Known about the structure:
Chain A is mainly alpha-helical.
Amino acid sequence: MGKNIIRNNIRKLRFNQGEMTQQQLADEVGVSRQTIVAIEKEKYSPSLELAFRIARVFDRRLEEVFWYRNGDQTK
Amino acid sequence: MSYREKENLVNIFSGLLITGVYAWMVYQRQLAGQIDLTVNYNKWGEILLIFMGISIVARIIIYIIFHIINAIATQGEDIPKEDERDKLVKLKSTRNSHYVFSGGFVLGILALAIGMPIYWIFVAFVVSGLLSEIVDNTSQIYYYRKGL
């Protein structure tokens, strides 16, 4: 069984939000810039609360920002 | 290198430095015959308590120096506030650290059980204490780099 990971498209959403910087997003949701970097690189799966806060910044539903993918799946 | 990684590296080196210097000083006293830690177990308590005090003071001084150097090098960049990821990294690293310290304690007990001198248990305390601290900080660096 492969590793289960939470995927996201925060980078794309930041770009669409007028090139919002990682620091700006970090300040909006109350975490460090390094945590945003780790989430974007999928090295850290955020808590449900933080995931909701990030989705709210982009005015999207949670599943439009984050989705679950099993490591066995190719897509 | 992030602030947290630098902070952990400073912790590792300060731990090694403080313990190394203090252990060397105590060992010199032992060699000079001023103390005999192989028979005087109360002295171990005194030495370990003094070590704790010295360690705290030395770390505060090293931290102040580190913050000054870091502020100059990063041109006053803000220290990142601790968030949920930092807390999780610390939690997992503390768990690893406790495994090591517990292992050291068990090895110390085993040493007594197989007939080694009693002072070995104190040596086991000191060594496992230092190793557990190194494991704590190394784990943090690992989790920050490789992810959780």
